[in-house]
Amino acid sequence: QGNMAFAGKYEFEGDENYDDFVKKIGLPGDKIEMGRNCKIVTEVVQNGNDFTWTQHFPGGRTTTNTFTIGKEADMETMGGKKFKATVKMEDGKIVADFPNYHHTAEICGGKLVEISTSSGVVYKRTSKRIA
After folding, report:
1. Tens of pLDDT, residues 61-115
2. Which GO terms of the molecular function aspect are on file (predicted)?
3. Which long-range contacts (CB under 8 A, 24 or more apart) does 19-24 make?
4. Which of 37, 39, 92, 113 has its CA 20 to 30 A from that of 14?
5. What is the pTM of this model?
């Protein structure tokens, strides 16, 4: 059980396959526009296996998911849907199955790299550490 240091603040740096992915998961057009090249700041507070994962969107909207590795938690999707998921830690990556996509997050070279996969479409988002 490698305890990766996820704690910190990360600012959106770039992504791949955003449009294909958000259409695949059925995000509405206004949400797609709002999220494109959006300077989301992701703030991670980690206490052992307990995480608070907050995304700050421009304009003051935030989404927070609080979870413990290996335990079922109430979560919220990119589109604001509520669901239950059990977040796992595999090879230092945080892994979660959202209702219509599979999500992983890892720290790679000081950056937060998040990969979401839906029906063969792979969306990758990279954020640089700012705190």
Report:
1. 898 999 999 999 999 876 778 999 999 999 999 999 988 899 999 999 899 999 9
2. lipid binding
3. 20/121, 20/123, 21/101, 21/116, 21/118, 21/121, 21/122, 21/123, 22/78, 22/123, 24/100, 24/118, 24/119, 24/121
4. 92
5. 0.89
